[in-house]
Amino acid sequence: MEGKGKGKGYAVSHEGLRKLFDLLSSEYELVGPALKEGVISYKVLRSFEELPFGCKSMELAGYYAVEKADGYFTYVRPSNSLKTFLHPPELTIMRVKRENGKLSFEYEYPDKKYCFFDVRACDLSALKVLDMVFLHKNKNPDPYYASLREKVFIVAVNCTNHTNTCFCTTMGTGPEVKEGYDFLITELDGRFLLEEGSERGRRLLESLENKEEARQEDYEEKERRLKKVESSMKRAFETEGLKERLYGRMEESFWEPVGKRCLACTACTQSCPTCFCFDLLERASLDVSERVRVWDSCFSPSFATLHRFNLRQSVHSRYRQWLMHKFAYWLDQFGTFGCVGCGRCISWCPAGIDLREEVKRVAYG
Question: Which residues contact 255 (CB under 8 A, 6 or more apart)?
Fold first, then answer.
């Protein structure tokens, strides 16, 4: 049976998922969620058993915990994001060596063939944003990002749960996965619905044994589950006309209150799936010099330093830069918001600052 125009749909058991995982692991380096030290994070997976089935993350502003739950894909997006693998925290982009009195220049492009297993709607939207930043709307496409991105195989999963920090419905990015995947998984009652999303996904699903063609009831159950989770998520704020309202609130008086709470620790930008700012460092020795790209943050005191003068000396001015970039400047640059509503910045803020409340306070207060 055809599923939403994406291709054939199949139903498999838990054991069928395991075989699917094994098929992928024979060709790709699998990256997916795993529970370690009380936190669910994306990491390189070595076995199917590492997936945190039956776990659920409980999140509030400045709070994170994991508890047991009934089911399999009961958790939501991991604590970190996929930019960790496509735009790594540290990457050597050039190496200069001195050999026999001569200099040689080496450019090493990452040679990984990733399968991102269990990607939620918000993180797929974030990948689309990063693709625009590094490739599609960049006059000089990033060859390092491109060398990794072009090989990625994506296994997406529809969210049938949410946390108190999720606001994907506000940003129009979830909870339903609609595009950008090779195949899609939806957990049903006692089985899993698999839907093709690309030619690569079709070929892989066709090679899977012990599957059966999806029934009309499977698609109907999928819709019921998605509607249930979507209806339980309240709209955080109005996005129509938000950019214009924020441009009208640039005075410091609107931003000073949050500046008194913010620690400028950079946790929000590090956990954000779309923040892409970086710095270039030179590491030199007698024989080898390396140019290294490392993550940076607009909350860092040195970020806006020009000729030894910091253009944003106050914390509130840095917070303004970050929030305005997400909800105003990004629209001017790339035609979309820079926020996908994943809520990571809320959960991992040690000061308990809720981005949703700050948007409402500044734009509509």
Answer: 316, 317, 319, 320, 362
Q: What is the pLDDT of residues 74-127, one digit of tens each?
A: 999 999 999 999 999 999 999 998 888 888 898 888 889 999 999 999 999 999
Residue 67's Cβ-side half-sphere holds a number of Cα atoms within 13 Å equal to 7
The per-residue pLDDT for range 318-341, each reduced to its tens digit, is 999 999 999 999 999 999 999 999
Q: How far apart are CA 68 and CA 325, in angstroms?
A: 37
- Looking from the CA of 136 toward its CB, the CA atoms found within 13 Å total 11
pTM of the model: 0.91
pLDDT at 1: 29
Helix axes 199-207, 14-25, angle to 10 degrees: 120
Strand ranges of the sheet holding 288-295, from the earlier edge strand across to the other edge: 102-106, 90-99, 288-295, 278-284
How far apart are alpha carbons 171 and 169 in whole angstroms? 5
Work out the burial of residue 140: count CB atoms within 10 Å of its CB; fewer than 13 is exposed, 13-18 middle, 19 or more buried.
exposed
Contact between 55 and 141 (Cβ < 8 Å): no
DSSP 3-state assignment of 165? coil
pLDDT score for 101: 80
Taking the C-alpha atoms of residue 337 and residue 170, their distance in angstroms, rounded to an integer, is: 11
Nearest to 336 by CA among 129, 112, 191, 136: 129
Query: Is residue 135 classed exposed, middle or buried when 0-12, 13-18 and 19+ CB atoms within 10 A define those classes?
Result: middle
Q: How many H helices and E strands in the chain?
A: 14, 16
Please, are residues 186 and 157 in contact by the beta-carbon 8 Å criterion?
Answer: yes
Residue 108: its pLDDT value, please?
Answer: 84
pLDDT for position 321: 94
Q: At how many degrees (to 10) do helices 355-364 and 315-324 cross?
A: 90
Name the DSSP letter for residue 183. Answer: E
Among 114, 11, 126, residue whose Cα is nearest residue 78: 126
